[in-house]
Amino acid sequence: MDAALDLTFRALADPTRRAVVQALGRGPATVGDLAKPFDMALPSFLQHLKMLEESGLVETRKVGRVRTCTLKPEALAAAERWLDAQRSLWTKRLDQLDSLVLDLNEREEGTP
Asked: pLDDT tens digits for 11-65?
């Protein structure tokens, strides 16, 4: 796995950060609005936001005193491609195992 993908999965490993990504999926939001639902001090929340920015999942722009965050869905695309490849690999392997088990069952039933 490459470093960018590692950062993406590390960022998504935390429920707070996943909730932020989900909220930003509905559209841009200010840091204050994003922090409201969480029972934590703002500096702690900002650490979560920093991890999301470092992973490339979130972009923050400051206009005056207001910081607005936006989701960068293209950063999720690499994780989606990796997950799709894993799904395809394991589907193929499980199909092969299923065929093997069916063949073995047929052989058992066929022998006296």
From this structure: 999 999 999 999 999 999 999 999 999 999 999 999 999 999 999 999 999 999 9
Q: Are 27 and 67 in contact (CB under 8 A)?
A: no
Domains and CATH numbers, the chain: 3-73 (1.10.10.10)
The pTM of this model reads: 0.76
The DSSP code for 40 is S
Q: What H or E segment, with its residue span, contains residue 66? A: strand 66-71
- What does the alpha-carbon distance between residue 5 and residue 9 come to, in Å, rounded to a whole number? 6
Q: Express the helix, strand and coil content of the chain in percent, nearest 5 each.
A: 65, 10, 20
Which tokens belong to 81? 């491609």
Beta bridge partners of 59: 70
